[in-house]
Amino acid sequence: MKKILFVLLLGPLFSTAQNNLPSFQNDTLTTTGGYKIYKGQTLQFSTGTSAAGYFNFIKFHQNMAKNNTYTLQNGTMLVKNLKAYKYSGADNNSIRIAGTITYKDGKKEEADILVNFERATQDYDGQPSELNIPEQLKAKPNQPTVKAQTKQPAAVEPQKQSAPDDLRKILVADEIKKLFDLYKAGALTKEEYEAQKKKLLERQ
């Protein structure tokens, strides 16, 4: 009798702990925040989190041979298929989604995208999530894991100083290239391009 009571009391604790991890079952993806992506659902895209308006955590699949994810802004996608689920941490996860995208200008396209479902459903780096979802269902950063990762390499801090600088320069150069592409495509005026470019250069 005591054993039964013990299991009944601890059962909810175990199920709560398990619910903190994402899962993919019966064609339904559930994020750590509790947001579900499933067949027949209509996803609402928000805005890209890069300075040029590109999406950092939602990409067109390579078979589409396109990378202009800024066109997804404020569009929708009717989900038709989910596959290739992968999860091994917030920065290393993805789900492949096929469906019909309706762009904000009303045009429709059959598309195949890859979504980092933890980052795309999280307010990241001071910007809102790239998928427009209820606030209470947004994934929360795993603070303890982040702190543990930043404290451990303290002994090799001098080596880590240059790596972020080099990475930052590469990222800035990439953002400037994307801005230039937008300018060439007529999505930005020359003044807007120069202003955004100046902001990016000031971050270095």
Overall description:
A hairpin with a 5-residue loop joins strand 2 and strand 3. The model is unreliable at 1-18, 143-152 and 156-163 (pLDDT under 50). The chain starts with a helix and ends with a helix. The protein is built from four helices and eight strands; from the N terminus they run αββββββββααα. With 204 residues, the protein is α+β, with helices and mostly antiparallel strands.
Task: Please provide a brief summary of the model.
The protein has 204 residues and is α+β, with helices and mostly antiparallel strands.
Q: Spans with pLDDT under 50 lasting ≥5 residues? A: 1-18, 143-152, 156-163
- What is the topology, as strand order, of the major beta sheet? 4-6-7-8-5
* Mean pLDDT across residues: 79
Please give the largest β-sheet.
5 strands, antiparallel
List the quaternary state of the chains: single chain
Helix-and-strand structural type: alpha+beta
Helix proportion: 25-40%
Radius of gyration: 20 Å
Q: Report the sheet-strand fraction.
A: 15-25%
User: What count of structural domains?
Assistant: 2
- Determine the number of helices (DSSP H or I, runs of at least 4 residues): 4
Shape call: globular
Termini separation comes to: 66 Å
Sketch the topology as an H/E string, one letter per element. Answer: HEEEEEEEEHHH
According to DSSP, the number of beta strands is 8
